Amino acid sequence: MVGDELLSIGEVARRSGLATSALRFYERQGLIASQRSEGGQRRYHRSVLRRLAFVRAARSVGLHLDEVKSALDRLPQSRTPTRADWTRLSRAWRGRLDEQIDALGRLRDDLDSCIGCGCLSLDRCRLSNPGDIAATMGTGAMYLPPRLRQGAGAAGSA
After folding, report:
1. Are the C-beta atoms of residues 54 and 81 closer than 8 Å to each other?
2. Can you spell out the DSSP letters for the chain?
3. Would you list the domain boundaries of the chain?
4. Which residues lie below 8 Å from residue 156, measured CB to CB, with a gap of 6+?
């Protein structure tokens, strides 16, 4: 590897838009790899930028990090995902995207009524959730489509 192909963690953070803590986390999770300089500093091959873009795209689809890792594990660590790789791997995500689109459409159409948070403070909730029956179904917004409940809070996390 030519020295100018290696980037410091700060440079990768700047170019990827991710915090250095996220880069270290992704490295611990096995999503990216670095090597150490003589002084012990992390150095990343330039190809890590495409891997990080892949991670970001997969996370925006709603994949969990273990699913992203599984996809990236199918590629050699030293090779960046190509367009063909992305096409092959993303085909498996089409069903998930269709479910999310459907769930978001239902949510959009039902926004003028209670979304099932279990709160009895809205007048409409007395009709949609009499006696707080949603509480017996579990925690959270139980009337949201399952696809939206599953991803709650996960999409924005590292």
Report:
1. yes
2. --GGGEEEHHHHHHHHT--HHHHHHHHHTTSS--EE-TTS-EEEETTHHHHHHHHHHHHHHT--HHHHHHHHHTS-TTS---HHHHHHHHHTTHHHHHHHHHHHHHHHHHTTS--S----SSTTHHHHSGGGGGGGG-SS-TTS-HHHHHHTTTTT--
3. 3-92, 109-151
4. none
Q: Dump pLDDT digits (tens) for 78-121.
A: 567 778 887 887 787 888 888 888 888 877 776 666 555 545 44
- pLDDT of 30-86, one tens digit each? 999 999 989 989 999 998 998 899 899 888 878 889 988 888 888 766 567 778 887
Distance CA 10, CA 18 (A): 10
- Provide the CATH number for the domain formed by 3-92 in this structure: 1.10.1660.10
